[in-house]
Amino acid sequence: MKVLIIGGGGREHAIAWKTAQSPSVQKLYCAPGNAGIAEIAECVDIKVMDTDKQIAFAKEHEIDLTIIGPDDPLVAGAADAFAAAGLRVFGPNKSAARLEGSKSFSKDLMKKYGIPTAAYETFDLAEDAFTYLETAKMPIVLKADGLALGKGVLICNTREEAKDGVKALMLDKQFGSSGDRIVVEEFMTGREVSVLSFVDGNTIKVMTSAQDHKRAKDGDQGLNTGGMGTFSPSPFYTKEMADFCQLHIYEPTVQALKAEGIEFKGIIFFGLMLTKEGPKLLEYNARFGDPETQVVLPRMKNDIVEAFEACIDGNLDQIDLEFEDNAAVCVVLASEGYPEHYEKGLPIKGLPAFRDKSGYYAFHAGSCFNENEEAVTNGGRVLGITALGPDLMEARKNAYEATEWISFENKYMRNDIGKAIDDVSGKDR
């Protein structure tokens, strides 16, 4: 097979790495890719949102399967365009991608079909949101309805903060048209857990659990980011919780989509909150998570291309997903100043250290080559340093050890990724 992956981040590097292991894959392309992906795939200089050029490339090079990584092209209908061109594609169509593309759509779906989630209200006018906030219970959560690079969620502790948040989203257009409509949601407390799944329109197969760390600084302080690190599995996500979620969240979601006449084929990412009342659904994503993918796929035993094809062909029920009985931790190396202002083009040293080390990975999130063919920084999140271990403690130790092999100017990372695993009883040390 010839396979094309759309995207150029850490998620796509992990997908490319896993896809390259499939014996059915003869040639791998990535558009646009990055300096890390270039080691295992031929990178093509086509932008993520340039679907027409991607389709022309796929036809010219007789691509057998295209995998769409990021949310933006999916929500814009890239999968529909590939299918209409007679090309085989993995990723939900535009209608199904609304599960991520519109918070109000997904919340209404949860409410209609009794999927446990936080109480919420939706607003199209800032004035109405301001009025609602006058009597709403604090703290409260504001969400931009549309895509916002994973950063369109504001947790507001006071009424003043909440009003400022509405202003930023709806009036100042901090995230452009994504904030034209907002969802105002009850604040829930508990552990957050991410669960990825394959879906073929009828069957859902759930992967192993992971936990992300969204805030930029240690102790979950600072601004929201695309994710500063992850670990897998989550020790807080017990078998009882998994069984509850299967019965009340995962299966009902697939049935709800079917009942609405929506065929979902691809990845559904469930963002869960483990509350005192039981697991509740925070949000859906319609693609692999980043950086959750970097800890989930290294633990996956299956041929990922077989899983992709089973989703497309509607025979996912014939796939038994299996994961190693181990653990993985990913620590994101970012550029100082992320997620706001940061420098690019800084040489990255130490990458060869990962080539001969089993169980250690440097997944490139924001990198490219300079005129001297050196790998340099090209984004806020630069690398996802991932390591395996027999348990979470060992995997965490290995990952932080491996972060020392890499150097670049203004290198920044959180030093407490996976700190919660120090005490599995649920109390942080």
Jot down its keywords:
single chain, 429 residues, alpha+beta, Rossmann fold, Dna Ligase, domain 1, D-amino Acid Aminotransferase, Chain A, domain 1, 4 domains, 9-stranded antiparallel sheet, 5-stranded parallel sheet, 22 strands, 28% strand, disordered C terminus, manganese, phosphoribosylamine-glycine ligase activity
Return the average pLDDT rounded to an integer.
95
Assign the CATH class of the largest domain: Alpha Beta
Report the radius of gyration as a whole number of Å: 21 Å
- Named at the architecture level, the CATH assignment of the largest domain is 2-Layer Sandwich
- Rounded to the nearest angstrom, the distance between the terminal CA atoms is 49 Å
Total number of distinct structural domains: 4
Q: Biggest β-sheet: count, sense, barrel? A: 9 strands, antiparallel
**CATH homologous superfamily designation of the largest domain:** ATP-grasp fold, B domain
CA-based shape: globular
Proportion of β residues?
25-35%
- SS-based class: alpha+beta
Stated plainly, the CATH topology of the largest domain is called D-amino Acid Aminotransferase, Chain A, domain 1
Uncertain stretches of 5 or more adjacent residues: 425-429
Helix share, percent? 25-40%
Question: How many DSSP E strands?
Answer: 22
The number of helical segments is: 12
